[in-house]
Amino acid sequence: MEINVSILANGLRVISVERPQTETVSVGIWVNTGSACERIDNNGISHFLEHMVFKGTKKRNALQISEDIENAGGSTNAYTSREFTVFYAKMLKNDLELALDVLADMIMAPTFSENELSKEREVVVQEIKQNFDDPNDIFYDYVQETTFQNQALGRSILGPADKVRSFNADTLLNYMSHNYAAENIVVCAVGNLQHELFTKMVEARMSELQKNKSFVPDKQIYTGGCFAKQRDTEQSQVMMGFKSCNCYDDNRYPIALMSYVLGNGMSSRLFQEIREKRGLVYSVYSFNNSYTGSGVFGIYAGLDADEISNYIPVVADEIKRICNEPISDAELNRAKVQSKAGMLMSLESSSATAEMISRRHLLHNDNLPLEKIIEIIENISKDDIMHAAQLIFTEPLTYTLLGNIKAYPSYEKVQKMLPHK
Question: What are the structural domains of the chain?
Answer without folding.
Answer: 4-206 (3.30.830.10), 225-417 (3.30.830.10)
